[in-house]
Amino acid sequence: MDDPDTDATLAQDMDPKRRGNMVRRLPRSFRSKLYFRYQSKFQIPQLEFNKMLEESDDQDPSRVKKQQGGVFDIRVANDRQEDLRVEVKKAIKSTVQWPSVTQSLKSIVTTGLVRSIRYAREKMDKYREGRKRGIGDRSNVNGGEKKPT
Q: What pLDDT was estimated at residue 10?
């Protein structure tokens, strides 16, 4: 649809059950981090939380049907949009933080200290530039140009 006269907008389905299904279908390791954050936020005791997860476990490899969100998934999806955004960001940060640190340490060994410092400085400059532009606009941090290496 490359018709410039077409006025098309996308709208997300906000039905709690469908949003719960989206939460349920997140990758398992990421979903468990998000679940842990919400277990703490909702102050659900560990035994009750474990029982809830066991009841909603549908990881059977012979199963062809799509995973369906349970009560907890729907509760997570129904959280205030801003709170959900914050919790997802924290889960993403906890997912990528350690690999990022180890990659940086490995780069010192493989490329040398000077090049690693230069690379880290460029990354921090890019991060700061993105922060200046605002959280919402991440699509074009470098103005469309690649930095020479």
A: 83
Q: How far is CA 107 from CA 93, 97, 112, 149, in A?
A: 20, 15, 7, 15
Q: How far is CA 31 from CA 21, 39, 71, 131, in A?
A: 12, 12, 15, 27
- Helix residue ranges, H only, the chain: 16-24, 28-42, 46-55, 71-77, 81-111, 113-133
**pLDDT surpasses 80 at 2:** no
Which amino acid, one-letter code, is at 53? L
Residue with tokens 């939460």: 23
Helical packing angle, 81-111 and 28-42, nearest 10°: 130
The answer, yes or no, to whether residue 135 has pLDDT greater than 60, is no
Structure confidence at residue 36 (pLDDT): 92
